[in-house]
Amino acid sequence: NKFSWSSTYVDGVGNKFSWSSIYVDGVGNKFSWSSIYVDEVENKFMRSSTYMDEIKNNLLSFYISILLFTFVRVLPTISLNMKKTAIMKKAMGFLIVFFLFSCTGSNQLTVKIENNSAIDRVSEVVEIALNPVSSRFGDSFILTDEEGQEIAWQKTYDDKLIFPATVRAGGQAVYHIKAGMPMTFRTIASGKHYPERVDDIAWENDRIAFRTYGPALQATGERAFGYDIWVKRVAEPVVAERYRKELEDGVSYHRDNGNGLDYYSVGPTLGAGTTALYPNDSIVYPYCYNTYELLDNGPLRFTVKLVYHPLEVGENRDIVETRLISLDAGSQLNRVMVSYANLREEMPIATGIVMRAPSEEYAADKNAGYIAYAESAHPANGQTFVATVFPSSVKLIEAEPVFFSETERKERGGATGHLLAVSSYTPGEQYTYYFGGGWSKWGFETSKDWFAYVADYAQRQAQPLTVTVR
């Protein structure tokens, strides 16, 4: 929203007051107004106004009508009754400014985003409280950037308003929210439960896709404990169509049919960044989820709540794990919040990435808060990359490979070990971290590119954007 304002006031001799303004809002509505008031000599009042509205903004028109009525009918009368004193003319000037800012400032919220890091933040999803927005604008409003371009947004299950923001390193950006009918947004992040495929839950965004396994798979006796990665090289959703072709047409999603495939191997391991209790350096492997609830399903964020079967660890019985998994548009990594009900003591917790021969290429930094692994390159399918990142609230004790014995390798489907990040879980708290992956055919040509992305991602978590609403 652009606003220019100028004024001139001369008193004592000519008692002259002039004022002009131009207001242009984010959708092209232009309002210009000017006035000249000369008293004592000519007793002259002149007013002109122009209003062009491409969308017939009735609310703004109402404010304009009140403003013009005040100048034409009310203020001259008050001026005559008060003998046109200089004090009254000054008061009139202040009242003009008050009405101006009332008309232009009360019909929008301004969101200021500051980036104190040395990394440009491009289309990073930010969130603000929904209540201040909905209490003013209801369920229908428009979000624009500084150039007046409309921005997609989403309301989330936990009463947040999220949208993608771009802020240069060390800079700031301003977004505006106002009443209006938003455009139809393209769905970028979404997911679904697939009972026809043994209760899989699969989800994706414009960069990557993931899968986790459900009770119907567990009932078959197949062991698949961790998260699965499906690589893709198109921004459009692909998962639902891959399932359909697999189940109805017999076209395997384990082959690249033009937009990517599933060639990541999970098996009885932690897969692509699953977390597990880790007492006495022993992983208590979770199995498949027991119940699920889809909480957010696009256009910008997918969120699912997973509740697992009870576990027994030492003297702790009926431990029930709950996970909240969210994937945002444009991100390679999910956010996960893990909690354990009925756990009565602090316990080590491990987040792991399965390692398979011959690759032992990884990057790990417990102080920066990340582990990253490069799978062995496939001659036709390329190379898959995996990582987990931890916010500063998680203090890592270890971040290094832990290799299996020969016996355990056979039990774990030939995997050589896990790249583990070990911390500690306190009962009653939520353990938050991020997991995800990338592909050499969609944005990360080499492991060096992937490791750099993960290090930057960790730095972004350590230096989050600062968001204020006014």
Question: Would you mind describing this structure in some detail?
Answer:
It is a single chain. By secondary structure, the chain is an alpha+beta fold. Helices cover about 20% and strands about 40% of the residues. It contains 7 helices and 29 strands. Strands 17, 18, 19, 20, 21, 23, 24, 25 and 28 form a 9-stranded antiparallel beta sheet that branches. The chain has a 5-stranded antiparallel beta sheet with strand order 11-12-13-14-15, covered by helices on one side. The longest helix has 24 residues, at about 60-80. The two termini are about 15 Å apart. About 35% of the residues are buried.
What does the largest sheet look like? 9 strands, antiparallel
The whole-number mean of residue pLDDT values reads 85
Q: What is the general shape?
A: globular
**Class based on secondary structure composition and strand pairing:** alpha+beta
Radius of gyration: 30 Å
Distance, first to last CA: 14 Å
Query: How many DSSP-defined strands?
Result: 29
What percent of the residues sit in helical stretches (DSSP H or I)?
A: 10-25%
| Residue fraction in strands | 35-45%
- Number of distinct helices: 7
Low-confidence stretches: 1-72, 74-88, 94-105
Concise structural overview:
Helix content is 19%, strand content 42%. It contains seven helices and 29 strands. The strands form six sheets. Strands 17, 18, 19, 20, 21, 23, 24, 25 and 28 form a nine-stranded antiparallel beta sheet that branches. Strands 11-12-13-14-15 form a five-stranded antiparallel beta sheet, with helices on one face.
